[in-house]
Design brief:
The protein is mainly alpha-helical. It has one domain (9-61). It has helices at residues 9-16, 20-28, 45-53, 56-61, and strands spanning 35-37, 40-42. Strands 1-2 form a two-stranded antiparallel sheet.
């Protein structure tokens, strides 16, 4: 059984190559596939990759506005 680990927002920023604020803005707008566990957001990199490849990241990237502060 190959179970993919959950990763942090910081790991997603390094994997995708965007700012941490961008990842949490995507969470705030419910675009990126993620699970909130308490105050933390957790991600599966394969789901994030699929989401980026569909072009969803581009559609949310054009939205402006401040992101909420999230703790990691």
């Amino acid at each position: 059984m190959n179970t993919e680990p959950w990763v942090t927002g910081e790991q997603v920023t390094l994997h995708v190559g965007v700012a941490k604020d961008t990842v949490y803005r995507w969470c705030e707008r419910r675009g990126i596939p993620a699970q909130r566990i308490g105050r933390l957001w957790k991600f599966k990199l394969s789901e994030v990759d699929g989401w980026v490849c569909t072009g969803e990241a581009d559609s949310l990237a054009s939205l402006s506005g401040p992101s909420a502060a999230y703790k990691e």
